[in-house]
Inverse folding.
């Protein structure tokens, strides 16, 4: 639950700690009763997130979201049994209503945009660009793009990305050594480092495809 109202922000923190506590309680109770393979998968996934310095992003929690909900409800049922609370249908409906309220902004967004083509890979201009890449770029060539995983998914091509913490010269040396020959630029993707890399080698980068949103450059020094 998040609110733009500062006076309600405290409720977001309180609800977060309550849910975290119930989830932890549910996990401990579940494992103490019966440990299953998905419990280990859940723990291993959390360890990967905590041990590596990922940028904070909810997307990394999505694969284990169903497990979090399972442990949350397990913890809630355990707590209700300990407090001798009757698990009536009304109480369950109230809890479900609370969950829906917490996600009301997301549900409203999904509903209001259900017929829209949002900015991204499903836009006609993106599909046009992906079709060009699939047709004209050999499968053994590497395309540099600052949304490399998306590009690989929609084109089936080999892709890579620059290092956000390196200079333009360091990035180019690494990418050149990898054999990267093509660089795709989309100015709508805000990435100063990538734009700086393109400008750094602009005398060697030749535009070979362009539409109103995307430009594909070929590194002439990488032509063999």
């Amino acid at each position: 639950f998040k609110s733009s109202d500062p006076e309600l922000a405290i409720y977001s923190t309180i609800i977060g700690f309550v849910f975290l506590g119930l989830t932890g309680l549910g996990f401990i109770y579940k494992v103490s009763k019966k440990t299953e393979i998905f419990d280990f998968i859940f723990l291993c996934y959390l360890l990967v997130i905590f041990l590596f310095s990922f940028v904070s992003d909810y997307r990394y929690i999505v694969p284990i979201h169903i497990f979090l909900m399972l442990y949350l409800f397990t913890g809630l049922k355990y707590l209700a049994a300990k407090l001798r609370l009757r698990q009536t249908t009304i109480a369950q409906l109230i809890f479900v209503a609370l969950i829906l309220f917490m996600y009301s902004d997301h549900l409203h967004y999904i509903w209001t945009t259900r017929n829209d083509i949002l900015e991204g890979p499903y836009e006609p201009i993106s599909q046009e660009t992906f079709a060009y890449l699939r047709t004209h770029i050999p499968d053994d060539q590497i395309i540099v793009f600052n949304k490399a995983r998306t590009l690989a998914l929609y084109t089936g091509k080999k892709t890579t990305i620059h290092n956000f913490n390196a200079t333009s010269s360091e990035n180019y040396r690494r990418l050149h050594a990898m054999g990267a020959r093509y660089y795709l630029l989309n100015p709508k993707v805000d990435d100063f480092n990538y734009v700086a890399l393109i400008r750094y080698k602009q005398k060697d980068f030749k535009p070979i495809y362009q539409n109103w949103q995307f430009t594909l450059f070929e590194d002439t020094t990488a032509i063999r």
